[in-house]
Amino acid sequence: MTPVQARTALGFSCVGHSISHIFEPIFYVVALVLPAQFGISYEASLALILGGKLLFGIAAPFTGWLGDRWSATGMMALYFLGIGGGAIWAGLATSPLEMAIALGVLGLFGSIYHPVGIAWLVRTAVNRGKALGINGAFGGFGPALGGVLAGVLIDAFGWRSAFLIPGAVTVLIGFGFIWLVLTGVIIETRTEARTDPTPDRRDTARVYIIIAMTMLVGGLIYQATQASMPKVFDERLGGLLGEGASGVGLGVMIVYGVAGLFQIVTGHLADRFPLKTVYVSMYVLQVPVLAMAATAVGLPLLLVMLMMVSFNIGALPAENSLLARYTPPSWRSTAYGLKFVLAFGISGLAVPLVAWIRAATGDFTVLFLLLSSLAALVLIALVRLPRERSDPLPAATAAAE
């Protein structure tokens, strides 16, 4: 793979990561106006995305397996066209049922990115932490852009435009990706840019069990935070960033934009310090800020939200590096797919949990105290992660640097 091909692949991997996270926050802002449009409650509006969220995670092992056995570039082409088409359908929906089906299509095609796109990136990177940190930053930019974009488009053109315009742009990106594949600028590669020391089988089993528990809880925290944030900001920011959907969207943009950049920092840390140390530290930091979010208002609320999301997704470069280190290259897409069953599929149950707690208590205090307790429980498991045996060895030039 030439440097130009590697940079192009990294670029589309990063853009794809942003797109994979842009439509869910768009929906959560749109959900603020759907009750008036469809004649349903806010809690019922949130429930419309549940099927799509479950497919986003549950379908990931299958799409990852196809990426391993068929074609990573072919799956990425399907990803761009499918997720863009699903968004356009959501923008044209005329009933809650049609919206739920469209969001299901969005989730199904969205399930392609994480198992296929991240494995594609890992395959070409010597400094995995750095590459995953940059890629993770773009993942953070998705919710950042999605929230403010939805707010601006809703206020300017109505809620349908919040799906239609980003969906059309995504389809165009997909056609551009296909053209670059056909012209040889983007190629399929199975060559590893670096090799890792062979892990002990007992260590591998322990890592898989512990990371599975952590990914489930980390996913629950991420999903519950993302689902509740627009409503929390709407109720507790007190107009700090402006009124209406635009002010809420700006708050979401600030939180996820800064959190995305923080992943670049934790990616560098993952290359320079033991992965276990970086990973555990992110959960130690989450416990107190999640508890503070239970009662914070105004500017303190914005700062607490910024920290809790930063620490939550800041763990991902170390987490994905650990998974890559303990998984054979030929099974990485499948392994990442199984990861995202937990991180985005099963943990998608956080959305009805948010709706239930909100309906039962009238606010989100109990929710954030529960999430803080779960993060504390995860620490008990994380201290059992094995120590790293030795540094990885470069197998080729650092294509993703």
UniProtKB/TrEMBL annotation:
Any one Gene Ontology molecular-function term assigned to this protein's record: transmembrane transporter activity
Keywords assigned: Membrane, Transmembrane, Transmembrane helix
Transmembrane segments: 21-40, 46-67, 74-93, 99-122, 134-157, 163-187, 207-225, 245-265, 336-358, 364-383
Tagged with keyword Metal-binding: no
Alphabetical list of PROSITE patterns matching this protein: MFS
Family matches, as Pfam families: MFS_1
Membrane keyword on record: yes
Gene Ontology cellular component terms for the protein in this record: plasma membrane
Domain of life, per lineage: Bacteria
Coiled-coil annotated residue ranges, if any: none
The Major facilitator superfamily (MFS) profile domain, residue ranges: 4-390
Protein known as: MFS transporter
